[in-house]
Amino acid sequence: MFLGLDVGGTFTDGVAVSAGKIISTVKTPTTHNNLLECILRAIDKVVLDTGNKNFERIALSTTIVTNALVEDKIDKVGLCIMPGPGMNIKDALPKEPYIVSGYIDHRGHEVARPTEEEVMSACRHFSSCDIFAISGKFAVRNPSYESMIADWIRKKVKPSHISLGARVSGSLNFLRRTNSAYYNGAVWRHFNQFATAVEDALLSRGIFGPVYVLKADGGTLPLAVAREFPVEAIFTGPAASVLGIMSLHPTRSPAVSLDIGGTTTDIALWQKGTPIFAEQGAKVAGYATSVRGFRLKSIGIGGDSFVRWEKNALKVGPMRYGPAMAVGGSKPTITDAMIASGLIEFGDKELALNAMKELALEGQTPYEVANMALDEAVTCIYQAVMSLLAEQEAEPVYRVEDIVQGRRINIEQILGVGGGATGLIPLVAKKMGLSYQLPDHGMVANAIGAAVARPTLDLTLRADTVKGFYTVAELGIKNRLPKSRFSLEDASLLAEQHLAELAKVTGIFLGETELIQAEEFNVIRGFNTVGKIITCRLQVKPGVLLPSKEVF
Amino acid sequence: MASQKLGLVFFPAFDWAISPAHPEREERLLYTRDQIVEEGLLDMPCIREYKPQIAQYKDLERVHIGVPDLSSLITDAHLVSAGGAIAAADAVMRREVDRAFALVRPPGHHAMRVVHGTRGFCTINIEAIMVEYLRKNYGIGKVAIVDTDVHHGDGTQDVFYHDPNTLFISFHQDGRTLYPGTGFTNEMGSPNAIGTTLNIPLPPGTTDAGLHEVLDHLILPVLNDFKPDIIINSAGQDNHYSDPLANMAITAQGYARLADKLKADIAVLEGGYSIENALPYVNVGIILAMARMDYSKVIEPDIATCPVQSSAVTRSISAIIKERQNMWATKEKLQQEAIAKAGDFWQRGRNIYYDDAGIDERQKEVVRLCPHCSGYVTIETEAYGMFGYKSAYIATIPNQACPTCQKAAYDAVYKAKKQGKQQLYFVQNKMEDRLEIL
Ligand SMILES: [Zn+2]
Ligand SMILES: [Zn+2]
Asked: Choosing a second label site near A408 at 20 to 30 A (CA), which of A12, A133, A272, B126?
């Protein structure tokens, strides 16, 4: 039996999935000042409901990292960077760094070596810090300097934790890796305290099962790994819902999914049965990081969105002032409009009609004003979908073929989940001229997503056959190439081996892998090809798993 | 409202090469891509990345006449790189950004008006196409193009040689020592446009110091005097000390300071073949300077290998600056003399060599020295190209041509067709924005 939990802004949802069937769902208010409380309440309810205390897996999607940042429960981090030549990065970081002199160039060549002395003086500079983050430009091409500095710091001050940029992400983008490493260190202690509390509480209740934490890219991490990379556990809510949709309604055709909640609608794009990833990492507290996620757009339209007149126009959201008037709220909402127009049955219809009467102009029936409000909400959602599609299409590409062929997605259907979906999705579908699906259990899609999200991992292998070495930054390795004639095929096989190794270390089942990036360039001296530069990025295919059968 | 924003069209064309070991090959911008992405430049709030468009043949035909036709001479990559320049222009003209850099390939500044094939790695002239696009779509009048590639921008010079509204300034390694072997001081434009072609041949071994002398005392004052509506930079990077194709000694700092002072509205990448040691740093330097960011930390790892400028080089740079200042100051007089000498028509015959394609073109060009407009141009061209012997007779009607020149251009082509010496007959009618095949 799989247990999935999603701690949302308003509610914490839980589900138990067994043999591909949902056998228990719970909903309990989120206790923001102590997340453990609502998590345990949800778990207790599932245990009570199913009579089961042994789970194959307990997966959490939580706001713990986000909360730590918002509530400033973060640690001081001694941030050491090796920027080498280039942009002056100092002012673009969330914290004043200590600049160390050594650097690696774009080929992974060690151009200038940092000295132990300057690292010692960095330690003195950060004498009040117990946590460090180290990030070097092009460390993903050669992680040795980052590791060397970490060793020196460990020897000198024995800190509780050191985050390394190239371990946090194997992709190019020094700025993002530096920010990621910094935030990873900053939330490390808070997250680890939470992880320990969860483990202790489960143990004391006699509940067994390995605990996993959801990532923004829809993968899950064993708690032990998440303890080292807590920044990966940020922004998991929308990812949970996207994965839930994946398991509730598998589809191969290009689609858009809309998770219409109380305050917001989260929009995702789908192609070939999987959600489309964002090319860029997420922003944390306004700073670009390397945390990978789905291409999502969130707009302030939901069931509880406030409806009012503004300068002769009927406006919807993004503010919300509590629930619909039909269930005792004080201000007209979109849910009231849906009830009044007969789209859904919920709460007291009389109260919903009153809400619309409040809004109606002279000569306007409550029904008419309800439809106007719904029209406005649908138009907002429609425009957001269009702009997300446009963003996807405008994403830069670097090959002639990709430009000429374009990357237009012709959406064929709409998938709707969340509390507001039943009423609004048919209207959005009508406006877009598309068919729609409202999968069962759509109200707890997020928790289902957490329950069945497949663990993922990815790594980038870069081989330079001229220099005769390859690196896998995520593993912190730089090795000699195993053979002289090394091809892209060899590279992807080698990547496969290392991914298996990484999977083993992290306790993840490898499953199906896919190449998400493959580049091969000749290196020419004079008029002779002297070697190749090969980059391949391999990942465990993201997706959903069910106890007895795989959906995909 | 734009706020010190740079639009960046980055298109490395990773699937396009002239041939596998050619300098213009797939990985030319690979290390530049690595550096730009690794720096995190595309995340900077003052830099906005744009995708190239695909240029239309209509855009190309405002500049070029392909013999036998453009479509059989170019690849999709050319349409995308011209479209990259156009996307940069659109971003600036729509005021989404303050300025833009089209960091694209393949390059274009050796491509002339008539195209029989590829020369100097160029088949179509992406800056020229962009300039005519700006004129057509945004009504831009006076344009200044500053070509900072180490090679003389002979293609751009050719396209605008008779156009007094386009100031073409090119500094380059002296043509006696480098391809394409042109760009001397006596190439000043045809009589109606004298002075608006300004060549500055520099001695091999010129460093940042020499280059900035030229910039401060010649290029910037001339621009100030010409008062263009827009400044375009043909941003070649092969003046770098590590470039394998030339012998100059400019650094990334030298290029970045150049971009900083020039304040071009749009820069378009041209050459630059030190793909590992120069391009990553030069491009980052130019991007930072154009985005008004701190570029002082962009230093090549091997900067110690950059030579110093000899005193002989310094002296010869001073001399060329002086001579060019004089020319600019007296260009009205030079023009009157040239017009008086030429009479009603000015003409020249040339051989144009296409090094990449091994084609020798013979061309005769005649310009009417019209007192009312810049005058129509006729071109007779013949070459043994990839499609065998091809010849054409072309008339070009400039923007704002007078009615007499418009009619005379057509008459000239009809007359040539009647004589039947060529295989193809074209009128490039800029006023009506079309290329007619007669
Ligand atoms: Zn060049
Ligand atoms: Zn005329």
From this structure: B126
